[in-house]
Amino acid sequence: MKTPRSLHTIDLEVTLKTPCLVHGNDPGHFGLDASLIRDHDGQLILPGSLIVGRIRAAWAAMAELALPVLDASQWFGRIGHQDSDRSRIWSNDLSSKSSAAELQLSSRVPIDVETGAPQNGMLMMIEQTQKAGSCISFTGRWRAFLSPDEVCPLKGALLAGLLWHSQLGAQRSVGFGELLSASVVVEAATNARVDSVSGTHARLTLDFEQAICVAVRSRGNVFESGDIIPGATIKGALASLIRAQFGETVAERKSTSKLAEHFDAIRVSHAFPSATYSRPGAIPMSLVATKRGNEQKIWDVAELAVPQLIESQAPAFCHDWKAAVWDEVNGQRQWGQTREHLRVRTAIDEGTRTAAEGKLFAYQCLVAEEAVRWLADLSLAAVADDHRAAVWQELADLLANGLGPVGKTDAWARSELGGDCPSVWQQQKPRAGEFIRLTLNTPALLLASKELANTPHDLQELYAAAFASLSGGALQLSHFYASHRMAGGDHLHQRRGGAAMYLPLVLSDAGSVFVLSVAAGKACAAETVLSVWQSQGLPLPPTVVAEHGDKWQDHSYLPENGFGEVVINPLHGFAVPQAHQLSPC
Q1: Is 446:248 a contact under the CB 8 Å cutoff?
Q2: Closest alpha carbon to 10 in 46, 57, 48
Q3: Positive or negative, the Cα torsion across 553, 554, 559, 565?
């Protein structure tokens, strides 16, 4: 067994002489041709990717001169998908806390070679915050798991990589960004106090200071982040921590670690942003809105199997809501507020040291507003009783100094494991003879793609068969409110062998509502099934397993990854229309 590495912080400080320029993507003040890059708090920064790139370039130049140097691919990773391709150092931006003076301008203009005069119309105005000749310092903290014999060599190599350059940023040929000094301090991270955890469930609280980008879609070269962190992403970050700390993958540690042995069985729910310590949930698709004059009402029509008018009005489902309705519902479920932050990046051409052609891309990141944290729930219900305490302890030790890297920005979160798992909308135990309103809190893979590829297909029949199979015939589907989306794309295509044909997966969206009834004589069985679903999520139906598989190597839409989370009869407080308020369409 390899000796575990310990988490170290790497504090960097770089001092530049102004003027300096690292291009930002904000338009800045009117009349500027180039603005300075800032983080989500408006602070001037040197991007972590810029510092990493300059260190890598310095190490490459040292290697060409046969100077002793570290392997950049080992510490900063390489392009690829293997564990050995990943960076061992988690970099962050270096920010300046210097108070900005009034807007300063620096100008440039190309000179005509023949006349020696400025070229017509080529004046460039560059934003500055300090007068020329001033000093501006940037500081930041990186993280890495290191063995004792790696600390000093890494510290020296990082410092040498920084001091190798005389300037940083753009416009270096005219003296911008002169490097005055740099320092690197590597210290072992202080071990946080770890509280013991017991039972089958625990709450995981994640508090991010950085902008996060957990991409849910891409528009051309822009990756847009969602405000939900999937359980699969959290489990991936945990696996990265294990790899970084022990130098072994989860699979390689199964013989020596209870956490690794039961890693696949641990269920990690999606993390939702919350302004409180209660976890919000998905908005049921059975909620509708009506408006008479200035009076707006929200109703839950889950138990209506056919379309009805409410108070002589056609209700609007969530797809047609206006901002006022969304604000009211999000306020009721205490959904944490986030704001957007655009970060533009590009690859650098090694030959010209300028932006590579056609390599521009951007992250549409999210930043949590004050007091907003992400809440997820961990379940060890599928772990053997006599192993559960050891797994909890290993998880607590692993998370003692936070969780990361998360998402495309490699964000690091302060983490807290333990405590109760309250929800904003509590669940209500089904009553005998009443419908059961099962709401998907997260997307679920309930239908096999081949079933839907057949034309025509009956969703009512397919869902009824799925719930009958999953419940052993104890629950019967009455009707449902659901929407769907396809998942897969190039990622799944490559997993299926590249050239092989495949059908995309079809997910039932979060918020989908399925109205169920208990089969005659199977009340006890139905209660047991619902309890298991609430604890461990909806399992994959046999038809889905047969076509798509049930391992993380097949796809990520597993209950252990937070998908298929259910809420039974959520107590959201919205009114149920009465018989006298309804009329046929």
Answers
A1: no
A2: 48
A3: positive
Spell out the residues 6+ positions from residue 101 whose beta carbon is closer than 8 angstroms to its own. Answer: 129, 130, 131
Give, as one character, the DSSP assignment of residue 488: -
> Per-residue DSSP letters for 342-386?
EEEEEEE-TTT-SEEEEEEEEEEEEEEPTT-EEEEEEE-TTS-HH
Residues 239 and 263: their CA atoms lie apart, in Å, by: 9
Give how far Cα 192 sits from Cα of 6, 258, 402, Å: 13, 22, 9
Rg (CA), the chain: 28
CA proximity to 484, closest of 444, 515, 448? 444
pTM as predicted: 0.91
Report yes or no: 55 and 63 within 8 Å, Cβ to Cβ. Answer: no
pLDDT tens digits, residue range 517-546?
A: 999 999 999 999 999 999 999 999 999 999
CA distances from 213 to 207, 230, 366, 367, 368 (A): 14, 12, 6, 9, 12
Residues in the chain: 585
Phi then psi dihedrals of residue 534, to 5 deg: -65, -35
Q: Which two tokens stand for residue 543?
A: 């038809």
The one-letter code for the residue type at 288 is V
Angle between helical axes of 385-398 and 231-246 (0-180°, round to 10) = 80
Tokens of 432: 């005998």
For residue 461, count other CB atoms closer than 10 A to its CB: 11
Q: Which of 248, 225, 245, 269 minimizes the C-alpha distance to 90?
A: 245
Tell me the pairing of strands 222-225 and 355-368: parallel
The sign one gets for the Cα dihedral 259, 261, 266, 272 is positive
Residue-level pLDDT at 119:
79
| pLDDT digit string, tens, across residues 144-187 | 999 999 999 999 999 999 999 999 988 888 889 999 999 999 99
